[in-house]
């Protein structure tokens, strides 16, 4: 059922993106392609668009959190012990060795408890607070599971890949916030990332357990693992927000992880301005109206600062 719902949503997103391009007249399509081939880095022009926007969608990825010192576990050197994230963040890995997977996530949770939002997170949260007083809205659609947006104060947040600080029971399915450190006594002092560290081999009964009455089922991190589908309810909320937004920002994302990589091109295809803030160009850059290279913590705050036309009550 989840798969069919996800496929339906994904097909609709793709269909909207490509049908939107085909629906334009040939002259408009040619003009659109020319514009998309040369994204602007003119901040003054972006600020004029920003000043008029009523519903702003901000899509964020690992790049925004990397500036807070969050390990990405991607690319060369992206290992925890001997494994890369894609070898541990799977249902099969958890079924084979729940102790090892929990050590990995315990390490990530403990690291995140020591990290703080950077200027990009703060700028987004401050922008949301300020614009809400003007009857304007900001929604953050994030691929990150670190909760730094929440810690910065963002309220309207859609976490499409889940959260490090939520658990889901493999028995009863209950989902709960969990900020315990350590998450269970057996994991105290465990999870060291060094390659020579041996597995703790913690018995299943000593791993995090469900606290619902009479359950005691094994808990797993409430995150979307490789090979799993995104929550169709969350995708539906994302789709609703993208349908009404009149400005979209793509911040610190490579635009290669699907289905999130479809979101901004879908918005751009219906003529809505999209601005990309990233260290470098991505496969989607030429489909957007604006591109601002550099650290998000440097480029984003001035982009989202109060515009001179804003009336603060």
UniProtKB/TrEMBL annotation:
Alphabetical list of InterPro entries matching this protein: DHS-like_NAD/FAD-binding_dom, NAD-dep_sirtuin_deacylases, Sirtuin, Sirtuin_cat_small_dom_sf, Sirtuin_class_III, Ssirtuin_cat_dom
Gene3D superfamilies per the UniProt record, alphabetical: SIR2/SIRT2 'Small Domain, TPP-binding domain
Keyword Chloroplast: no
EC number: 2.3.1.-
Reactions the enzyme catalyzes: N(6)-malonyl-L-lysyl-[protein] + NAD(+) + H2O = 2''-O-malonyl-ADP-D-ribose + nicotinamide + L-lysyl-[protein]; N(6)-glutaryl-L-lysyl-[protein] + NAD(+) + H2O = 2''-O-glutaryl-ADP-D-ribose + nicotinamide + L-lysyl-[protein]; N(6)-succinyl-L-lysyl-[protein] + NAD(+) + H2O = 2''-O-succinyl-ADP-D-ribose + nicotinamide + L-lysyl-[protein]
Domain of life: Eukaryota
Example GO molecular function: zinc ion binding
Active site (catalytic residues): 161
Residues at which substrate binds: 105, 108
Residue numbers binding NAD(+): 61-80, 143-146, 252-254, 278-280, 296
Chain ranges of the Deacetylase sirtuin-type domain: 36-310
HAMAP family documented for this protein: Sirtuin_ClassIII
PANTHER family, alphabetized: NAD-DEPENDENT PROTEIN DEACYLASE SIRTUIN-5, MITOCHONDRIAL-RELATED
Physiological role: NAD-dependent lysine demalonylase, desuccinylase and deglutarylase that specifically removes malonyl, succinyl and glutaryl groups on target proteins. Has weak NAD-dependent protein deacetylase activity; however this activity may not be physiologically relevant in vivo.
Annotated protein name in UniProt: NAD-dependent protein deacylase sirtuin-5, mitochondrial
Phylogenetic classification of the source organism: Eukaryota, Metazoa, Chordata, Craniata, Vertebrata
């Amino acid at each position: 059922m989840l798969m069919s719902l996800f496929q339906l949503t994904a097909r609709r997103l793709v269909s909207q993106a490509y049908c939107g391009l085909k629906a334009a007249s040939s002259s408009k399509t040619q003009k659109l392609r020319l514009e998309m081939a040369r994204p602007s880095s003119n901040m003054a022009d972006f600020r004029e668009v920003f000043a008029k926007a009523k519903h702003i969608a901000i899509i964020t990825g690992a790049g925004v959190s990397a500036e807070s010192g969050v390990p990405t576990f991607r690319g060369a050197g992206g290992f925890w012990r001997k494994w890369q994230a894609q070898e541990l963040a799977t249902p099969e890995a958890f079924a084979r060795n729940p102790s090892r997977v929990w050590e990995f996530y315990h390490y990530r949770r403990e690291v995140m408890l020591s990290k703080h939002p950077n200027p990009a997170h703060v700028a987004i949260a401050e922008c949301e607070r300020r614009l809400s007083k003007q009857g304007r809205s900001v929604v953050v659609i994030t691929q990150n599971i670190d909760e730094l947006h929440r810690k910065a104060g963002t309220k309207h947040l859609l976490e499409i890949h889940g959260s490090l600080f939520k658990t889901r029971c493999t028995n009863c399915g209950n989902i709960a916030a969990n900020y315990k450190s350590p998450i269970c006594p057996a994991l105290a002092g465990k999870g060291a990332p060094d390659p020579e560290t041996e597995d703790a081999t913690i018995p299943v009964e000593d791993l995090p357990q469900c606290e619902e009455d009479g359950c005691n089922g094994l808990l797993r991190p409430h995150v979307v693992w490789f090979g799993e589908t995104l929550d169709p309810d969350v995708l539906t909320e994302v789709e609703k927000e993208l349908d009404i937004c009149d400005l979209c920002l793509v911040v610190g994302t490579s635009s290669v992880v699907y289905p999130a990589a479809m979101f901004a091109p879908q918005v751009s295809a219906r003529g809505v301005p999209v601005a990309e803030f990233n260290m470098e160009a991505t496969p989607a850059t030429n489909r957007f109206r604006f591109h601002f290279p550099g650290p998000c913590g440097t480029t984003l705050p001035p982009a989202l600062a109060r515009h001179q036309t804003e009336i603060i009550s």
